[in-house]
Amino acid sequence: xxxxxxxxxxxxxxxxxxxxxxxxxxxxxxxxxxxxxxxxxxxxxxxxxxxxxxxxxxxxxxxxxxxxxxxxxxxxxxxxxxxxxxxxxxxxxxxxxxxxxxxxxxxxxxxxxxxxxxxxxxxxxxxxxxxxxxxxxxxxxxxxxxxxxxxxxxxxxxxxxxxxxxxxxxxxxxxxxxxxxxxxxxxxxxxxxxxxxxxxxxxxxxxxxxxxxxxxxxxxxxxxxxxxxxxxxxxxxxxxxxxxxxxxxxxxxxxxxxxxxxxxxxxxxxxxxxxxxxxxxxxxxxxxxxxxxxxxxxxxxxxxxxxxxxxxxxxxxxxxxxxxxxxxxxxxxxxxxxxxxxxxxxxxxxxxxxxxxx
Length: 358
Ligand code: DP6
What we know:
The chain is an alpha+beta fold. The chain has helices at residues 80-91, 122-140, 147-161, 220-226, 233-253, 256-275, 286-302, 325-336; strands at residues 16-29, 34-35, 39-40, 44-62, 70-74, 77-78, 103-111, 173-176, 190-191, 205-209, 307-310, 316-320, 345-349, 355-356. The strands form three sheets. Strands 1, 4, 5, 6, 7, 8, 9 and 14 form an eight-stranded mixed sheet that branches.
């Protein structure tokens, strides 16, 4: 597919409005390390979530001055920091969406999860904006006429905004990055793997335990960059490739014990990479470790295949099958809430992907 479509020649675009809501996602095999223009150092695989969403409305008007202007409102308030980030992002896409230059934008976004929850919102936020831009293209040009083209371009564009965002374009289990033996996978966009999925993974739950709601300590761009000089990175990238291959098999056969061991190892390896970078950093908090130990104990006592994963932060994602929801909720309430900030837990689950806001 040609993402810089020559059909996108100048055309008058009237004022209008588009809206998309897009979910966050949680990686099972982590993307950590990149080269060039947002090319991942290894393939990754994630569950798209259901409840943790960004809702974005993009209003557009023919430019009123010489250059295109962006007003960015977050949770109802003008946000110049996000506005500037979006401006830079839009400026980098002159060839992908030539119409950007002829429009002023008013972008309004809100998250369904509390801002203080410390959930990374770049995946949901960037994917929603990418979908909105593709929606403008689809409405006014003779392009993106099939669903496949539409979502593939949205994923391509979302990746340029934030790597992990390209996986939020699709529901369920989504991969990003070339995987040996899977021709449709690409470093340029996310993909629904054409593999058999055991039903247990179709409604997996993710209860997000908020241990710390502070600002990110390290920007992901800097974190990824440190992998270039990390002495263990080559092994790590190999391991991620092996883990994806194993997980693809596990996803087909529903072997939860094996699933748990790979997912937890991925989370700890991600943090091990941060600890072994130069400069090094440590993003887990004492309560993160307390929760991990409790989960291990719970699993040993009950035999329930609940496991944890982590983003580049201290909050725990407690993954578990639908059939164990009741016991896990009891465990969270009795044993884990005490380690969270103000008893904050977000009970999310695997979701079906973004939706257009009419
Ligand atoms: C640890 O997608 O936030 O969550 O491409 O620089 O925006 P940028 O990075 P980002 O990195 C996410 C890293 C991760 C793992 C993952 O989601 O795969």
